[in-house]
Amino acid sequence: MPVRPVLLFPDARLKRKCAPIARVTDEIRTLANDMLETMYDEPGIGLAAPQVGEAIRLIVVDTTWTEEGAERSPLVLVNPEIVSREGAITWHEGCLSVPDYQADVERAARVRLCARDLDGKAVEIDAEDLQAVCFQHEIDHLDGILFIDRISRLKRSLYVNKRKKELRREREEEQGAHDPRVEL
Ligand code: NI
User: Fold this and answer.
1) What's the pLDDT at 179?
2) Looking at the whole model, is its pTM more than 0.90?
3) Closest Cα partner for 99 from 42, 141, 150, 55?
4) Given 71, 138, 170, 183, the catalytic residue
5) Over 90: is that where the pLDDT of 139 sits?
6) Ligand 1 center from residue 97 Cα (angstroms)
7) Any domain includes 156
8) With bands split at pLDDT 50, 70 and 90, how would you rate the model's confidence at 71?
């Protein structure tokens, strides 16, 4: 199963609102497997389809595994929705699409999620703490929202400026390596 490249902020494809999945096809099963493979490879505990360039409502989550070899318990969720939320929790979040950055984000502490699995069966999960945070974070991706859209404007712009600088440096380095006009 191939690992797919994860799109990085500020890729415009991360901002799209994703379409519901009408029918689970073989193509979607393959995508779900690729997404799991990609998530474990990165490593991460959740991944949404838009992060690999597919604008459909599909997420994969596994909040229990660790790199040290704990057993994997992957969840593949089709058209996931939060149907109720309770309480508040602040979690220090990161994202595979937001390189080199973490920040505190406040979300609901407990949520009930409804979705379908790959066989079209209804799934209902009551989640709390990390799993609740992860569900909310991944479903945000399906609506084109990143966790940096949920922090203060100041913090966000500090990160965005840092990221832009990094990208500029990367570009300059690439050009420097290939541009024959550059004298060393
Ligand atoms: Ni993310």
Assistant:
1) 62
2) yes
3) 42
4) 138
5) yes
6) 6
7) no
8) confident
